[in-house]
C-alpha cells in the first residue's frame, strides 16, 4: 500500500469515527437541552483583549449545524460547514469506491490544498469578524445563542 493510500485510509476511518461522535452529540442535544453548553468557559482572548480569537464561534457553529441551521453555522464560523461539506464528500465518495472494490472510481483524494483552504477560511474569518467589531462596532456573534 502506497503512503497516500495509507493516509487516505487513516482519514477515512478517523472521519467515520468523528461522524459517530457527532451523531452521539446530536443525540445528546435531543435528550438534554443544549443549555449545558453555557457551562463551557468563555474565550480568554475575547475577555482580555476584546477581540475574537480564530476559534471563536466554533462551538456555536457546530451546535447550529447539528440543529440544521446552516446559515447561522456559516455566520458563526465558516470553517465548520466547509469541513462538513469537504469531509462529507470525502467519506461518501471513499465509501462508495471501497464498497464497489474500486470499480467506481469517484473517491476524493487527499490534497494539501484542502488544508490550505481551511487556513485561508480561518484567517479570513478572524480578520473579518474583528475588523467589523473594531471598525464598525458590529458584533456578529452577539445574540446568537446556543
Specify Rg, calculated over alpha carbons: 18 Å
> What's the helical proportion of residues?
55-70%
Count of alpha and pi helical runs: 6
**Number of E strands:** 0
Order of helices and strands: HHHHHH
Number of domains as seen in the coordinates: 1
Average pLDDT for all residues? 88
Tertiary shape: globular
- Strand fraction equals under 5%
Biggest sheet, in brief? Answer: none
Give the end-to-end Cα distance, rounded to a whole number of Å: 44 Å
Structural class: mainly alpha
Unreliable residue runs: none
Keyword list:
146 residues; 6 helices; 0% strand
Question: Describe it for me?
Answer:
It contains 6 helices and no strands. Helices cover 66% and strands 0% of the residues. The chain is mostly helical and 146 residues long. It has helices at 3-31, 44-49, 58-67, 70-76, 79-99, 112-135. The protein has one domain. Helix 3 runs antiparallel to helix 4 (70-76) and helix 5 packs antiparallel against helix 6 (112-135). The protein is globular.
